[in-house]
Amino acid sequence: MTGKTKKKTTKEARSEILRFRVTPAEREQIENKAYSSYRIVSKYLRDCALEKEIFVVEGVDSLAQELRHIGTNLNQIARAVNAGSLSAVDLTEMTEEVRAVWRSLNSLPLAVR
Fold first, then answer.
1. What is the number of other CB atoms lying within 10 angstroms of the CB of residue 71?
2. Are residues 32 and 65 in the same domain?
3. pTM for the structure as a whole
């Protein structure tokens, strides 16, 4: 034994493939619905077929984009500090941006948090 053990998972592997035909218009409609609340069409279709509750939250894309911008800014600041080109950093503006995103997240209904 090498000391490595296989991780036990309670989830069963998804090994089965289902395929079906749709018209181009149906495909577009399915993809539009899937991408409005999911990143992966197969997960959306699985949840639909298994009658799971699906939530569509408007504005999540813009919230995610804002978080990416904040992350980019934070990375740039960290690089500058690590390179020694910045010694003191004023994070007031970034802190306010994070607070605004946090308020937006907290305003989501409890069911989708």
1. 10
2. no
3. 0.47
